[in-house]
Amino acid sequence: MNLVYRCPQCQKVIDQLAVPGEIDDEALGFNVLTAEEREDIIEVEEDNTYVNVVCDECAQDYAANQTLYNTQIH
Length: 74
Known about the structure:
By secondary structure, the protein is of the alpha+beta class. It has a single domain, classed as Dna Ligase, domain 1 (2-Layer Sandwich). Helices cover about 40% and strands about 25% of the residues. It has helices at about 25-30, 35-40, 55-74, and strands spanning about 1-5, 15-20, 40-45, 50. It has a four-stranded mixed sheet with strand order 2-1-4-3. The radius of gyration is 16 Å and the shape is elongated. The N and C termini lie far apart (about 50 Å).
């Protein structure tokens, strides 16, 4: 199984891990997520599990644009 961390905004692959065999959700820390969070964050396709996390670049862009947006509105 491959565990692929990717940005849902730009689709950049942040990291990829080859995981031998099956690993349960608790070992990956997914057990702390709600069902809704799991649906939003985790996608399973054949031999790949995709974990959607925002990359640093997109987070910075959002923060900069959010600041600009709030300045224009208020």
